[in-house]
Design goal:
It contains 39 helices and 15 strands. The protein is α+β, with helices and mostly antiparallel strands and 933 residues long. An eight-stranded antiparallel β-sheet has the order 8-9-11-10-14-15-13-12, with helices on both faces. Its cofactor is Mg(2+).
Length: 933
Amino acid sequence: MKASQTAALQAITPSGGARAITPLADPPDVLPDLIAHLVPDGHPIARDAALAVLRRHLGRIHSRVQQAFEARELSGLSAARWMAALTDTLIVAIHSYADATLPATRTREVPFCLVATGGYGRGVLAPFSDIDLLFLTDAPMSPRGQRHVEFMLYLLWDLGLKVGHATRSVTDCLEDAKGDATILTALLDARPLAGDGAVFNLFAAAFAKARADWGFGHFLSAKRAERAARHARYGESPFLVEPHVKEGRGGLRDLQTLYWLSRYAFGVQRMPELVGADAPGGGLITEEEAKAIRRAWDFLWTVRFHLHLVAGRAEERLTFDFQPVVGARMGYTRHGKQDGVERFMKHLFLTVRDVARLTRMLEPGIERAALGLPAVLPASDRALSDAGFALADGKLIAAPGFDFREKPVLMLRLVKLARDRGLEIHPLAFRALIRQSRHAVKLRGDPEANAIFLDLLSGRDGAAWLRQLNEAGFLSRFLPDWARIVGLMQFDTYHVFTVDEHTVEAIGVLGQLDRNELSEIAPVASELLGQLQSRRALYVATLLHDIAKGRGGDHSELGAQVAQEVCPRLGLTPEETETVSWLVLHHLLISQTAFKRDIEDPKTILDIAEVVQSPERLRLLLVLTVADMRAVGPKVWNGWKATLLRELYWRVAEVLAGGLSVPERDVRVARAKEAAASLLKGRPKPELERFLSLGYPGYWLSFDPQTHARHAMMVREADTSGTPLTIRTRVLEARSVTEVTVYCTDHPGLFSKIAGALAVAGASIVDARIHTMTDGTALDTFWVQDASGAAFDQPHRLARLSVLIEQSLSGRLKLAEEIRKVRREPARLRAVTVPPRVVIDNHASNTHTVIEVNGRDRPGLLHDMTAAISAQGMQIASAHITTYGVRAVDVFYVKDVFGLKIENERKLAQLREALAESLMTPESQPAPVPARA
């Protein structure tokens, strides 16, 4: 057995609590056997027969490696090495078969070497990785050599392999590598497979000399630029909930970059060669760090290997549908209150964080060892030098004699000085920050450390400094509760980041509001932040608002308790502590009310006012809500949600200020009619009196006077023309919605049919107001968005929407059939489960029964739910539609046929059962029982 294969079979213990790997018995050396089949007695078999032999052999390679890997006899890295070693047998056998098959020529042959490059050259292959080959010569390839290359490539392609290939002379290699960092990198991993070894030795010597002549600086710059472009494409954050295992930040490519830099600078083959004072570079990494690199390599390779096998292709992105499968295959199961998939993903995120940290730690060491140590200059002013800092390359670094281990508060002073002076932290200083972050435990409760930390948190660019402290590992040591949310993900499609990264993003949004950068997007919150008396408490509340996630139970309640303990340790006053705890407890109050309740209902406003009680707390709560929502992900915030939050804020603010935003119902209705009449001045009196008599009180309290005036014109046009159906659309760009108003004769199921038509049109309903008028007509208003969260604004789409509503109401549109044709969600999202839930509340409103329905969103869901409500004889007064990723949370205000709340328990039970059935997907509903003949 080859030494490379033996090394590939070293047993390790898999992560996540899985059982230990059983060492694999030595596999048979299949190379002689394969060549014997292809060239028996020196005579090559026919090509078709050879292809069949090679296919069987390739199948055995994949089957054997997969079997051993899935039996946990191999880790991912060991499997990748064995896959590459066994692939060598295939490639070398094809080379030998080609050489035996092609007839000799009389002309002088130009020797060439068959070389593996790229990942294959490093001796690692995933199941569906490309195989990169270089046909290396020292002179122009001879005609027979060219036929040899073509013969091999066609065989490999016929086997279904993805082959990257090049034919180059040694001189070509050097010229191409000098001008292309990608080629240079691939050649760093070059490994001879077959052919003339002397040619490869000549290349290796020339390539080593060329690298020395070119110097390290240009290669370092090229790899940094490549990495920056890669991160920009696949995610700057290592904490995206659907990470790219290979190319994302903290992924395999970042680890490979460290290897390439080390290989280029020092000629090492393995990272552990950098350990020890006598190692190249003077001991750039510790034994512990070398083990961390090995663990990360192995873990990420194991994930990648599983991902390829599960996907059946070269899939590198760990999407939602693959996460539970890969996690289960790696042995992650439910532990306490945390699902197996969440445990698996947390381990992955902690690993990619380690990779990002190792990059920040090792790369500057490689740079300085290769290019020389920086000149450490005394600080230009006495204050900086007295604080224990100096400048190197114009960046901040600890002065000689100042050690983070002996005085940990220097770590926070370093960050604060960098911020205050507008300086960058030197990479070597950040390296020290990472290595000594464990000493941050000594700073807990330290007054100076608390003061600096709170100043960093609430000061300029707080998110940037917080992210650096988190990446260095300092934050988890300084705040032990923070360590529990690092790398913690929620297995849903709503949150884009892990909990810790989401929190840092929220702090960043506060900074944007503070700098007035969001004045057009969130004008009220931007204005309010400058008026706050409890600014420091707001920043700490934002830091702690999700601190109790992953503990089971209500994270708001648990987080409020954590805040009571953490805030005094951070040096906050009792008053600030109480404010922070209250904000954490109620940080979802504003958003849940705005998106789930009827803010036109006076009780909704009074209920919030009773909880908030003070204008300052209301201001704090609104700003925290905006920061929290915008930090969830780019698609969560839109103009419609911003409008709802603003309207809710102003209504509650008026109540807290003692205003008359909630006077007696009759007085408010009278005022609304007066305002509408003033806008309709000049209309015939009978026409005006008819319109003013049409609406019930709920209608007059649901719209502004301008909308009432538009409705009056719709009613007049319908009366004049005798049209049974009138539809009007209006694009509200500021709110990112399109308003659709339907006026027609009321009948059971009207809402459901309109909702179905809108679903077929590709419109998502975000809010709705349903009004039956005194003459039996219906005036229903829907606010809709397209799939991207924007308003319907194209004329042809608006026209189609109106046509579909008309066809649905006339019965000419087969809703069920058309809804099934609507595009379904991507397969990767189907793995996210949403337990159905129906909650009926008779206390949230004085006049309506409030129904909250939670379920998996799908085209036509609202149609199905409203049809179920109508079938129970209920009237829908308003609907509030919210989606959180694939979760739909829809709230309906309903009455019975007599206009009263539904309080009969039997009817409520039937309603609950009907709604639960409507939440089932068509695929999950039981097939109808055939009628008996």
